[in-house]
């Protein structure tokens, strides 16, 4: 009885952690976008000094 | 059983009196929006060199009308109407008598103020743009009108507070519904923010514009304006975030990701959105660099709750998609209801908010502000934030809110038309705001009618992009007219029926929300503390070491 429930819990647990991989990737892309744009204008700022 | 209970929750309907109050606000909002869109079209066409305004119509008069109607009237009326409906919806379907009474009083005050301001603008006696910067002087009735608009919105806010208190009294010890909490946070933030502009209008602008005092302390007036000007943008944004946190999960068939995270982000906005106003005055004289730097630091801190919101949204989307069987890294993306305008319009707004927010970080990066200050980049920036993220979320809300309030239905045909409307808006904004950003980096100023600066080669090189801007503005205008038509159809002509007011539910596994989040005395004290730190010294300084006062100017 205990043996049948334990793996099930684990599987659900795995599913839950796996389920936000796309979110992690998305926020990384978002962060990269912000940094790249910011650097673009920063470089413009420096070249116009 | 749980399923049946859930169905019941979604069947709650905003009752007639609350619906009427909410609808009255929403309709004025879209009326103002339609008029302002005409002004916006004219501006785009003038700047693009497509048309010339007749002698009797001043460009800056049109621009003032556009800024005031879009930025102050459309937003404020829509927000208060939406918040009232959501408070009613999440506290059992109705508003307490005090809430209704205050709501209507506020509505009438705002309408009277709106009419006064409109008359002064239409008679060309208030072409001071929507920031009403001194020493440009408008008719005193313009300031009294906009002042009434603000005070009316306070009274509306008191109506929301009264409804919250009534619920609390009936449910002692219980955590308030998430939407109602967010509505209260929004109006608390608005109370704090508008103190600055109220002081400016009452103590400075009105006496000076009546001629009771000969001159004005311009530095102080700008400081008070921007004390209000930044939290103003969060007043626009918080109801939008409320929609994203609370309504979107239900629309996509998912769950609210985290009640505590949502509440925490709203509290952070109350703390951090006001003591940052100097990031609008980075190029102003009279404020020392240390104070500017301090405000820049706090500005970077107020980015955090927005990043929390972005994370939450991705998480809600991914969880909902995976629950529907999505696989792979981005498979959930395809499971989202892209053909549902209630989802599509706000999400187009979220996407626009990514470059919009990024631009904001650039604007606030102290020295880097030099690159963009007073260029049309700034206009491009806020047409992405308030003009797209906020406006498209308001559209998305209107598609279900209006029929819900009038007992009608969002039909499949209107849904399809809505998708077209949203796509046109997004395309128009991509063109208009995109070219504004590039033009700004090339040095083209904002708030400037058509000019080639005596055929200066640099100014001439801007013209093709000004043309793209005009094209984008024309698409936006078409979309705006469609939207106004759809709102009228949904309010008065759509088939009768029940349109769901979507309210997301919490995940069963969600953690409980810590109770300090509703301890208002602590929250307000902390907010006031930060404001005093950020503003007390500089304000005293500009009063004690005041610059020479300025007499009024009429620049038009
Ligand atoms: C039909 C859609 C729209 C068009 C064609 C449009 C076009 C424009 C243009 C061309 C300008 C800048 C003119 C200049 O600086 O010389 C402008 C300014 C402005 N727009 Fe829009 N816009 C639209 C929608 C919106 C929306 C939805 C909002 C906000 C909710 C908004 C808020 C503003 C504000 C606050 C200003 C600044 C006014 C000032 O400088 O005092 N606009 N708009
Ligand atoms: Cu700001």
Alpha carbon gap, first and last residue of chain B: 68 Å
Number of strands of chain B: 0
Kindly identify the CATH topology of chain B.
Answer: Cytochrome C Oxidase, Chain A
CATH first level of chain B: Mainly Alpha
Shape label of chain A: rod-shaped
What is the percent of helical residues of chain B? over 70%
Q: Could you list the spans of chain B in which at least 5 consecutive residues all have pLDDT below 50?
A: 1-5
Mean pLDDT of chain B: 95
Rg of chain B, Cα atoms, Å: 23 Å
The CATH architecture category of chain B equals: Up-down Bundle
Q: In terms of topology, how is this protein built?
A:
The complex is a heterodimer of chains A (49) and B (556).
Chain A: H1 2-18, H2 21-47
Chain B: H1 2-11, H2 16-47, H3 59-90, H4 97-122, H5 140-170, H6 178-210, H7 218-251, H8 259-272, H9 289-301, H10 303-323, H11 341-363, H12 369-372, H13 376-406, H14 412-442, H15 457-461, H16 463-492, H17 520-544
Helix pairs in contact in B: 2-3, 2-4, 2-13, 2-16, 3-4, 3-5, 3-6, 3-13, 4-5, 5-6, 6-7, 6-8, 7-10, 7-13, 8-10, 8-17, 11-13, 11-14, 13-14, 13-16, 14-16
Protoporphyrin IX containing FE (HEM) binds next to α2, α3, α13 and α16 of chain B.
Write up what this structure looks like.
The complex is a heterodimer of chains A (49) and B (556). With 49 residues, chain A is mostly helical. Chain A is rod-shaped. Chain A is built from two helices and no strands. Chain B has one domain: Cytochrome c oxidase-like, subunit I domain (Cytochrome C Oxidase, Chain A, Up-down Bundle). Chain B is 71% helix and 0% strand. Chain B has 17 helices and no strands. Residues 1-5 of chain B have low confidence and may be disordered. At the A-B interface, helix 2 of A face helix 10, helix 11 and helix 12 of B. The complex binds protoporphyrin IX containing FE and copper (II) ion. Copper (II) ion binds next to helix 7 of chain B.
């Amino acid at each position: 009885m205990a043996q049948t429930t334990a793996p099930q819990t684990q599987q659900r647990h795995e599913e839950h952690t796996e389920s936000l991989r796309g979110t992690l990737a998305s926020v990384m892309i978002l962060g990269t976008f912000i940094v790249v744009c910011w650097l673009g204008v920063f470089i413009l700022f420096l070249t116009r000094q | 059983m749980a399923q049946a209970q859930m169905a019941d929750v979604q069947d709650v309907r905003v009752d007639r009196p609350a619906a009427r109050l909410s609808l009255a606000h929403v309709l004025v909002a879209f009326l103002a929006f339609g008029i302002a869109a005409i002004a916006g079209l004219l501006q785009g066409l003038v700047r693009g060199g497509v048309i010339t305004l007749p002698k009797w119509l001043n460009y800056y008069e049109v621009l003032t009308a556009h800024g005031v109607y879009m930025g102050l009237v459309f937003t404020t009326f829509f927000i208060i109407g939406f918040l009232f409906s959501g408070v009613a919806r999440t506290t059992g379907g109705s508003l307490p008598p005090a809430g209704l009474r205050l709501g209507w009083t506020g509505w009438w005050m705002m309408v009277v103020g709106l009419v006064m301001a409109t008359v002064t603008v239409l008679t060309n006696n208030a072409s001071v743009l929507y920031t009403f910067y001194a020493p440009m002087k408008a008719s005193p009735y313009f300031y009294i009108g906009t002042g009434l608009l603000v005070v009316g919105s306070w009274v509306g806010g008191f109506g929301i507070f009264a409804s919250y208190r009534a619920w609390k009294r009936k449910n002692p010890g219980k955590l308030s519904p998430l939407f109602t909490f967010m509505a209260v946070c929004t109006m608390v933030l608005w109370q704090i923010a508008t103190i600055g502009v109220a002081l400016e209008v009452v103590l400075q602008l009105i006496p000076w514009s009546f001629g009771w005092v000969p001159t004005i302390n311009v530095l102080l007036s700008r400081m008070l304006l921007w004390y209000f000007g930044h939290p103003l943008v969060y007043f626009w944004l918080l109801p939008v975030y409320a929609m994203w946190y609370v309504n979107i999960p239900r629309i996509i068939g998912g769950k609210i990701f985290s009640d505590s995270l949502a509440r925490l982000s709203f509290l952070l906005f109350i703390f951090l959105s006001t003591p940052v106003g100097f990031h609008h005055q980075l190029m102003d004289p009279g404020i020392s660099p240390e104070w500017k730097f301090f405000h820049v630091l706090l500005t970077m801190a107020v980015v955090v709750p927005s990043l929390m919101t972005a994370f939450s949204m991705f998480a809600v989307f991914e969880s909902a998609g995976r629950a529907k069987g999505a696989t792979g890294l981005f498979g959930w993306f395809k499971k989202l209801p892209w053909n549902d305008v209630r989802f599509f319009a706000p999400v187009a707004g979220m996407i626009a908010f990514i470059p919009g927010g990024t631009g904001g970080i650039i604007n606030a990066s102290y020295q880097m502000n030099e690159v963009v200050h007073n260029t049309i980049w700034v206009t491009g920036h806020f047409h992405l934030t308030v003009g797209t993220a906020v406006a498209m979320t308001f559209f998305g809300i209107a598609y279900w809110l209006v029929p819900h309030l009038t007992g009608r239905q969002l039909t499949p045909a209107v849904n399809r038309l809505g998708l077209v409307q949203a796509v046109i808006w997004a395309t128009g904004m991509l063109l208009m705001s995109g070219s504004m950003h590039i033009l700004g980096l090339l040095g083209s100023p904002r708030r400037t009618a058509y000019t080639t600066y005596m055929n200066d080669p640099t100014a001439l090189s801007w013209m093709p992009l000004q043309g793209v801007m005009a094209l984008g503005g024309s698409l936006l205008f078409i979309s705006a007219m469609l939207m106004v038509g759809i709102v009228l159809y949904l309010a008065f002509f759509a088939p009768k029926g029940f349109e769901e007011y979507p309210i997301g539910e919490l995940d069963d596994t969600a953690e409980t929300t810590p109770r300090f989040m509703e301890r208002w005395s602590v929250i307000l004290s902390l907010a006031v503390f930060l404001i005093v730190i950020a503003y007390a010294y500089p304000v005293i300084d500009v009063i004690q070491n005041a610059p020479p006062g300025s007499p009024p100017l009429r620049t038009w």
